[in-house]
User: Fold this.
Amino acid sequence: MSAMNAPEPEERPQDKANVRLLRRRRERPRMTLRQRMPAEKLRKGVYLIPSLFTAGNLMCGFFSIIATFRGEYVNAALLILLANVFDGVDGYVARLTRTTSQFGVEFDSLADVVAFGVAPAILVYFWALVPWDNWGWLAAATYVVCGAARLSRFNVQAQGPAKNHFVGLPIPAAAQMITSSVILYYYLGFEGAPTRHMTFLLVIYGLAILMVSNIPYFSLKNNDMRKRHPEWMFLSGVILSTLIIAQRHIMFFTIVLLYTLSGPLLWCLSNLKHRRELRREAAKALS
Assistant:
């Protein structure tokens, strides 16, 4: 009885402080799959406007191959030129409308391989390289492989910081070097000249080497054309436009040729300048 009537021990403040209260776990509402997955993984479809221009680029390359098989070499060259227009417009539209995507980059590269790699190679092979037999198709195949490698390297380098120059000759410029030469030959009446066989065998190998080289080429992609420029640039543009309208065949070939040769020439000049600077530094160190 004494044990039952004994007073209960009093709770001390320290015991209350050591007690941890467990919060009741709240039940989270169920989330749908669309809410749990990132939006990029669930997003389907493509951006329509730039993809249509890229498809136009691809179709022009395909139609150029068909025209080459029919013996319509000038039409094949003009279709490659039109493909270059589509290729420039699709990138500009994608940047302007902010609809760039990884799908667009890959689709554009595949279209460029056909329009600026396969189509020009088939054109120049049937037009000028058939007499060379194995050396002819080997030169055309080398051009295609080097063009594809050039595009792959460009896609890898595009993930880094933006540059104001290309590394190696761009494949559209290489394709226009071929098409402008074909158009000029027909314009001057030299389409049957036997010299084209040797000339274009060397040209194809030269273009293939320039595409996979590390020679820098000027780029207009990162230049802001909306800002003010000197007046001489405006006057030069007017004069150039007048010459292109007056002699479009010759000027088209001249512009593409100057751009193709600009890389090696500027590279040689920069190397000579660098060597001169090293000689001056060595002379100052000795004196």
